[in-house]
Design goal:
Belongs to the enoyl-CoA hydratase/isomerase family. This protein is 48% helix and 15% strand. The chain has 260 residues and is an alpha/beta fold.
């Protein structure tokens, strides 16, 4: 199974379970992950949701090689359909689940990995965590769910996009993208302590508090910005298709070689 799911003491724990692939996201993993989120959302016994990952890394992003055979001809319509559903819609749905959620992040969290942790309400990072979005190297202006500006502030967002370099856990804490940084060997323990504390709060109050904060962000333009920047992302795909027929695997390998 690509995703593990368990419930104990009012806490649903969702675990990415492709450690041999650095928890890179093929379509099966994303579909299983969405199913787990929806299961936790519908379970009246669940008060808090924890998202974690097995292995050294939280997620190496989209598994381009692991999503199945690459068609001889890729069209923008094909890319738009796949990405709008599995990347944009899934992330927005997880963000709006009416229960508090906590992401536990260790190691690399690259591009598509941000689409998994940013929708969570709280992020606890191990001291070895590195957050990056180097897809400008592929001629694209940022990953599909553009939380960058909201999570990092405009200047830091531009820095990680323009350079491709990662943000450390400490830097992420300074700008408010993560709530706390803990030693790697204490990550699960500290997240469980936090989740247990929150699970003892009144569920209706938690739901209303989350709704208040999310709606405030939406009034400020979060939801509209996410939708509009997704279309900007798609122009990057369109340009690649028009220039070179989109040699996606070659560009993906080039990107990986520059960040490893």
């Amino acid at each position: 199974m690509n995703v593990l799911y368990e419930v104990a003491d009012k806490i649903a724990t969702i675990t990415l379970n492709r450690p041999e692939a650095a928890n890179a996201q093929n379509h099966s993993l994303l579909d299983e992950l969405d199913e787990a989120w929806m299961k936790a959302a519908a379970d009246p016994e669940v008060v808090v949701i924890v998202l974690r990952a097995e292995g050294k890394h939280f997620s190496a992003g989209h598994d381009i090689r692991g999503t199945g055979p690459v068609p001889d001809k890729i069209t923008l319509e094909m890319l738009y359909e796949v990405e709008s559903r599995r990347y944009l819609e899934y992330s927005l749905r997880w963000r709006n689940v009416p229960k508090p959620s906590i992401a536990a992040v260790q190691g690399r969290c690259i591009s598509g990995g941000l689409l998994l942790c940013w929708p969570c309400d709280l992020i606890v990072a191990a001291d070895d965590a590195l957050f990056s979005d180097p897809v400008v190297l592929m001629g694209i202006g940022g990953v599909e769910y553009h939380g960058h500006t909201w999570e990092l502030g405009p200047r830091k967002a531009k820095e990680i996009l323009f350079t491709g370099r990662p943000v450390t856990a400490g830097e992420a804490e300074q700008v408010g993208m993560v709530n706390s940084v803990v030693p790697r060997d204490q990550l699960d323990t500290e997240v469980t302590k936090l989740a247990t504390h929150i699970a003892g709060m009144p569920p209706f109050g938690l739901r209303q508090a989350k709704r208040a904060v999310n709606q405030t962000l939406d009034v400020q333009g979060f939801y509209a910005a996410i939708q509009s920047v997704f279309d900007i992302h798609q122009t990057g795909h369109g340009n690649a298709l028009s220039v070179s027929g989109y040699p996606v695997l070659a560009r993906f390998d080039e990107m990986k070689s520059k960040i490893e």
